[in-house]
Amino acid sequence: MATVLITGCDRGLGEEFALQYAANGDRVIATCLDPHAFRERHEHLSGIEAVKLDITDEASVLRLAVELNGVSIDLLVNNAGIPGPHPGLQETDLTLWRNMLEVNLIAPFVVTRAFTEHVASSKRKMIAFITSRMGSIGLNNTASSYAYRSSKAGLNMVMKSLAIDLGPRQICVLGLHPGKVALQGEGGLSISESIARMRKVIDHSGPHQTGSFYDYNGQILPW
Ligand SMILES: NC(=O)c1ccc[n+]([C@@H]2O[C@H](COP(=O)([O-])OP(=O)(O)OC[C@H]3O[C@@H](n4cnc5c(N)ncnc54)[C@H](OP(=O)(O)O)[C@@H]3O)[C@@H](O)[C@H]2O)c1
Fold this sequence. Notes:
The chain is an alpha/beta fold and about 220 residues long. The chain has a single domain, classed as NAD(P)-binding Rossmann-like Domain (Rossmann fold, 3-Layer(aba) Sandwich), CATH 3.40.50.720. It has six helices and seven strands, in the order E-H-E-H-E-H-E-H-E-H-E-H-E. The protein has helices at about 10-25, 35-40, 60-65, 95-120, 145-165, 190-205, and strands at about 5, 25-30, 50, 75-80, 125-130, 170-175, 210-215. Strand 6, helix 6 (about 190-205) and strand 7 (about 210-215) form a beta-alpha-beta unit. Helix 1 (about 10-25) crosses helix 6 (about 190-205), helix 3 packs parallel to helix 4 (about 95-120) and helix 4 (about 95-120) runs parallel beside helix 5 (about 145-165). The structure holds NADP nicotinamide-adenine-dinucleotide phosphate (NAP).
């Protein structure tokens, strides 16, 4: 049994990560903006502790890290993020952009730094960042989405630096692109399939894969 801490479990990919790891028999610490609602939706489930966390609130992040002192975290999943919108050149709103940089780029760094010792003391020693192929400069041939793309490109760089810094401690740091996931009935990969495949990529990774940017099928993506 592993202990898994996942951010942004109120809905979407984070919630599904929590449900799948719990179904696997792991101990799941699911951080939510509204843990009460999460508990109400999943009151029949055991193995998941829903805790309140706004990842942009550094004091709260540090408080949770202290509360979990002595708990070894095998896998930290930095999932919480703002996945859209993706406006064009003239429509790009700077308030949205600053918020995306705060949530998608800076906060996952703050969370990871706060929980590094919890991960280092575990058996698996894994940190996953849910990034996006939209953060790949090499794959950008459709433009727009200045705010989201730059937040995820920056996150990829943070992931890579952390992999180098934490490599000597045998911690594996991965960047994962979940695919274009069908939310609210749109077309695309199903949430459950995306999470199942990313879990497989995580399962097959170790210190030798650290610093890699993978898609949900385990294919290396270009920076
Ligand atoms: N869906 C895709 O196709 C796709 C593709 C590539 C990458 N991704 C990435 O995958 C991750 C999850 O996306 P998703 O599609 O599941 O999006 P989602 O349905 O919007 O879920 C993201 C969750 O993060 C939460 N969140 C936002 N700001 C937060 C904060 N400051 N502190 C804590 N939680 C916060 C959201 O809360 P609220 O409920 O209040 O909004 C929401 O519950 C994101 O990092 C996204 O960029 C998604």
